[in-house]
Amino acid sequence: MVVIGEDSRFWTHHGIDPAEIVDALGLSEHHGVWLTLRTLWARRDRLRGASTITQQLAKNLYLSPSRSPFRKVKEAVTALRLELALPKTRILELYLGIAEWGPGIWGVDAASRTYFGAPPSRLDETEAAALAATLPFPRTSNPAFQPDRMATRRDLILARYHGVGVQVVPEEEEDTMPPPALVAPADSTVMVDSTVDSVVAPRDSACDSLLSPPAGAASRAPCSSPGRPTPPAQPSQPAPVP
Fold it and tell me: What's this model's pTM, rounded to 2 decimal places?
């Protein structure tokens, strides 16, 4: 669903989708080099909706949210490098895990539990399409806030999913005013390790796992945390008087 809505040629391009750029800019194959460059600069704002999933991942991981054309160049170069370093499945996995799906909602698992009270594996196709339709404008139209725009895009994604020849036009959020923060439903379940007191000593498990010595090596000093106070230092001996 996400590939249909965000980047239909994701599995075939190499980080940049030239066909999508040509469509976004309204270029023609008969344009010369200089006319193409002039058109590219004059219509550079249209490139915002032509970003591939790999480009969006590059922006989310490494770049600022500015909308300058120079940032788009950096985004394209970083996307090419990501495609050389990672398989497509890993790129998609990373994108789903860090994308914004609403105000304060990051990652598909958090979005699924917040909007529908279930993990992504338990969503039906309509709910999955709704999440995919939320990605272009997560702050201004999502399943819990002004859903009309999201619902229109969701229906297009579902139609395309079932083989109808409709076009899902790439979009990008323009109104950045955030809606009220969303809260996960009370019946959603978050699995935690019951052996770790995450309230009293939240750093213990992570710190101990990082500093655990290998077998046969001398043990290291425990890490300090709010639930494990550090012993006071021994007072120093006064220096002898000459």
Answer: 0.65
